[in-house]
Amino acid sequence: MVAEMVVEPLNSPALITLLAFLLVVITLLVSTRRSSNAPRLPPSPRGLPVVGHLHLLGSLPHRSLRSLASSLGPVMHLRLGRVPTVVASSPAAAEEAMKTRDLDFAGRPRLLMVDRFYYGTGGIGFAPYGDHWRQARRVCAVHMLSARRVASLGRVRAQEAAALVGRVRRAGISGGVVNLSDSLNGYSNGVISRCTLGDADCGVEGGGARLRKAFGEMEELLGTVPMEETVPWLGWVDTVTGLERKAKRVFEEMDGLLERVIADHRQRRRAAAGPPPPGTLKTLWT
């Protein structure tokens, strides 16, 4: 009898209609509250769970972004794994982000490779906007990139450019193929290492060649996006592919080289072995 008293009201069409109406009202209220609290985002294409819009980039991301911009407009929102990204595809949108509202867009995301190779600080190239970044920028402008400093290092750039031209000439005479990308990358690393550490080997076995090789491997890894950064629960893929092992090896080698360079500068300052080799490190030391 009790069961009949409970079941009988549920068979009433009026009660069922009332419950359905209340369910619809509650659903609308919850969705409206969520939409009012959600940020206003640019238009976005349909995405997939977990990967977001990564599958839309393809093998030529710049062309894929151009195609998306032609249908969505000059500013669009993409979700690259768990990373929300706003893409500006027109000069006007880029000017508004980089000039008109530059302070709003001055922040930088935390990247796993950057945190590892820059000891968590990010350096001037990756550090978030703030007191640390402004101080680092001031040091660079005054001591590293001033007109006088750049002019004093003209000899290094000329010598490295001459060495580059010589390598290309010898390859041409022998009929070999010249990989200009590798050659220009080697020239850039040579200039950076000599301008930073000086012409001496700085106590490093193998000298500048070893430093340039370590710099090149570090630059390659800085341009790599680990799977853990976009899809954290797939971080084990980086271990399977060997990326984690390579990053750890390069970091340990780079850290050891820098420790030896600093120790060499300290020894030269304390002993009568002569002044430290000229370079940015010597300038910062003094």
UniProtKB/TrEMBL annotation:
GO molecular function annotation: heme binding; iron ion binding; monooxygenase activity; oxidoreductase activity, acting on paired donors, with incorporation or reduction of molecular oxygen
Record-given protein name: Cytochrome P450 71A1
InterPro entries recorded: Cyt_P450, Cyt_P450_E_grp-I, Cyt_P450_sf
Gene3D superfamilies cross-referenced by the UniProt entry: Cytochrome P450
Membrane-crossing segments per the record: 12-30
Region (Disordered): 267-286
Keyword Iron carried by entry: yes
Family: Belongs to the cytochrome P450 family.
Domain of life: Eukaryota
Assigned keywords, A-Z: Iron, Membrane, Metal-binding, Transmembrane, Transmembrane helix
